[in-house]
Design goal:
Shape: globular
Oligomer: single chain
Number of strands: 9
Number of helices: 8
Distance between the termini: 24 Å
Structural class: alpha/beta
Strand content: 15-25%
Radius of gyration: 17 Å
Strand order of the largest sheet: 3-2-1-4-7-5-8
Order of helices and strands: EHEHEHEHEEHEHHEEH
Low-confidence stretches: none
Mean pLDDT: 90
Length: about 240
C-alpha cells in the first residue's frame, strides 16, 4: 500500500473535483486520495463515486450530512488516515489554488526530517496570484498577528496546504482541536510546534480559484482573529507532551 494520502474536503466543487483527482493520480508517485464531502448539493460526491470505478483502491470518499466546517472535515479525514496507517498525510484544497505538483516537494521535506511541511505563500516574499490586494494584505498580516500573539515563527499560519507525518496526528489530541474555519489551520500549526515537532515552510505559488465559489466569510475571519487570543490563553494551562 502507498505510504501517502491526500485529504481534500469538498462542498460544491463539481467544476474542479474531477480535474483535481486526475491531476493527483497523474503525479510520478503513488498517492491515495480521500475526499470528505459535506453533502454537496451540486453533485460533487456523485462525481467522486463515479470515478472510484476507474481508480479502484486509490480513491476514497467519506460523505457527511450538511456543511460542518473545514476543521471537522480534516479531523474526520485525519482519523481515517491514521486508522489506515498512512505515513504521510496531506491536506489541500480542491480548487487548484494549491498546485498538486507541490505535493511531492512537501512529502520530500517530511521524508528528509520535518514532521510537518507547510506550503507557504509568504516564506519568501508574497507569492499569491489573482487575489485582490485587500485579500492579500488581510492574509499576510493575519500571519504577522499570529506570530505576535503566539510567538511561533511561521510566516503563513493560515496555510491549508500541509503534509504531516502520521506520528504528529497520533500525538495531537485531535478531539481537543476547537476551531473549524481558518483558525483551525492556525491551531494545528501552533499545537504541532508546542508538542516539539519540527515544522518547515516550503515556498509555493498560491493561485486563486478560477472555478467555483470561495468559502471565505466574515465569520470565518472573526473566528481566526479572536480565536488566536483564546488559543494562546488556553495554552497557558495545558501541557504539551513532547512528540517522539
Amino acid at each position: 500500500m502507498p505510504d501517502s494520502i491526500v485529504i481534500i474536503p469538498t462542498y460544491n466543487e463539481k467544476e474542479n473535483i474531477e480535474r483535481m483527482i486526475r491531476k493527483v493520480f497523474s503525479l510520478p508517485y503513488d498517492l491515495h486520495v480521500l475526499i470528505i464531502d459535506d453533502g454537496s448539493p451540486d453533485g460533487t460526491g456523485s462525481i467522486v463515486k463515479s470515478l472510484q470505478n476507474e481508480f479502484t483502491g486509490r480513491l476514497y470518499i467519506e460523505e457527511r450530512k450538511g456543511k460542518q466546517g473545514l476543521g471537522t472535515a480534516y479531523i474526520h479525514g485525519f482519523k481515517w488516515a491514521i486508522k489506515h496507517q498512512y505515513d504521510y498525510i496531506f491536506e489541500m484544497d480542491a480548487d487548484f489554488s494549491h498546485n498538486p505538483d507541490d505535493l511531492l516537494r512537501l512529502r520530500e521535506a517530511c521524508a528528509e526530517g520535518a514532521d510537518m511541511a507547510i506550503g507557504s505563500r509568504y516564506v519568501k516574499g508574497v507569492n499569491v496570484v489573482n487575489w485582490p490586494m485587500n485579500r492579500v494584505l488581510m492574509s499576510y498580516y493575519a500571519s504577522v498577528y499570529v506570530r505576535m500573539i503566539t510567538g511561533i515563527d511561521i510566516h503563513d499560519a493560515t496555510a491549508g496546504f500541509v503534509c504531516y507525518k502520521r506520528k504528529v496526528l497520533e500525538t495531537i489530541r485531535l478531539d481537543k482541536i476547537k476551531f473549524v474555519g481558518y483558525a483551525f489551520q492556525i491551531e494545528m500549526k501552533y499545537t504541532t510546534i508546542r508538542h516539539g515537532f519540527k515544522v518547515v515552510e516550503i515556498p509555493i505559488i498560491f493561485t486563486d480559484r478560477t472555478e467555483g465559489v470561495s468559502k471565505m466569510s466574515t465569520r470565518i475571519f472573526r473566528e481566526a482573529f479572536f480565536g488566536v487570543i483564546q488559543m494562546r490563553i488556553n495554552s497557558i494551562f495545558r501541557k504539551y507532551p513532547e512528540g517522539e
